[in-house]
Amino acid sequence: MPTAEIGVFGGSGFYSLVPDLEQIEVDTPYGAPSDSLAIGEIEGRKVAFMARHNRAHTIPPHKINYRANLWAFKSLGVTRVLAPCAAGSLKPYIHPGHFVVCDQFIDRTRARNDTFFDGPQVTHVSAADPYCPELRRLATTTGAAAGLTMHPNGTMVVIEGPRFSTRAESAFHSSQGWDAVSMTQYPEVTLARELQMCFSGIALITDYDSGIDEIAPVSAAEVVRVFGESNERLRRLLVSLIVQIPKDRGCECGNSLAGATLSNQQPEEA
């Protein structure tokens, strides 16, 4: 089987940037991933691309097999995952077309398989700092150097979908100081952490969420329009980022399971 060091959640729009892609099917213990993987090389870096919603965009966010997707990357040898996503702004100063490099998330999903550790081995992975700090810094500086508006940190609230927020929900999310809202960052980020992979969540802001400063509520058509207009900038950002990622990791993501597994000799519970 081919190998890759970097995994990217991106559809067929990225394929034109990489010559001689090899399409492969990957089986996982968790079922089929969203799509086949396209493997290619960018300036000497082996990259695996996967369309999280399938290339035909047939899989809604709440039906994505997140565990299979991350496992498929891991099985190819991937250690870094770049996970761009469309997101709605919860702040008036974070405008459509801006990028938010997430450093925290809030999980408001309710029906997703979100761990590889279902027992009998009990494991509690720390999610205090879920996003890779090394990839965050690189993404921020790379985008800024390209003239993009980059917000170097931000809290992403992840909703179940596929519907958008009500005005009341959006007002609540904004009142909490959270920055953006999407439907796919969770459980991708924590599953990557359980597999000891670095994960970078780069959110392309496509709209203002419902109820932000009395701006018209978000619509699917508007999201598609803005994402399409900004897609080329996102592709160039990711390609530039891939080239600059160090060969050796300078973070602690590869040690995320250290001390997380409980032994069989734990004190008896009261």
CATH topology: Rossmann fold
- Give the amount of beta strand, in percent: 15-25%
Radius of gyration computed on alpha carbons: 18 Å
Helix content: 10-25%
CATH superfamily: Nucleoside phosphorylase domain
CATH class equals Alpha Beta
How many helices does DSSP assign? 5
Widest sheet: strand order?
8-10-11-6-13-7-9
Please give the number of β-strands. Answer: 13
* Main β sheet profile: 7 strands, mixed
What distance separates the N and C termini? 49 Å
- How would you state the average pLDDT, rounded? 91
The unreliable regions are none
What is the domain tally? 1
Structural write-up:
The protein is α/β, with parallel strands linked by helices and 270 residues long. The protein has a single domain (6-255), classed as Nucleoside phosphorylase domain (Rossmann fold). 25% of the residues lie in helices and 20% in strands. The strands form two sheets. Strands 8-10-11-6-13-7-9 form a seven-stranded mixed sheet, sandwiched between helices. Strands 2-3-4-1-5-12 form a six-stranded mixed sheet, with helices on both faces. The mean pLDDT is 91.
